[in-house]
Design goal:
about 100 residues, mainly alpha, about 35% helix
Length: about 100
């Protein structure tokens, strides 16, 4: 019940936000232990790009891989959520170890 109430009173898709409100939201999200998903499991953020300076271990062909996105709201495609990007990386690491 609390999760449903919180969801109904949250900022919904399509609502215009001014820059000061955006900053307040991001500052408050940064204070949470797990800001990546709402209580229903939907992502609260969207991964847009990987900057080479922020991810020096990623090669040129892999830096934009997470930015392609697509798909629905389920499945943890929010930034930092354990989703497609991390699963893909684990699969690639396993292939390298197996010599595939």
């Amino acid at each position: 019940m609390l999760a449903s109430r919180a969801c109904r009173s949250s900022i919904m898709i399509g609502r215009a936000l001014d820059p000061p409100l955006m900053r307040r939201i991001l500052a408050r999200l940064a204070e949470l232990d797990a800001p990546w998903n709402c209580p229903h499991g939907r992502p609260t953020m969207r991964h847009l790009a990987v900057l080479p300076s922020a991810a020096p271990g990623l090669g040129p062909g892999r830096a934009g891989a997470g930015a392609r996105g697509g798909g629905g709201s389920k499945g943890g495609d929010g930034a930092g959520a354990r989703g497609a990007d991390e699963s893909t990386q684990e699969a690639e690491d396993t292939e390298e170890e197996d010599g595939s």
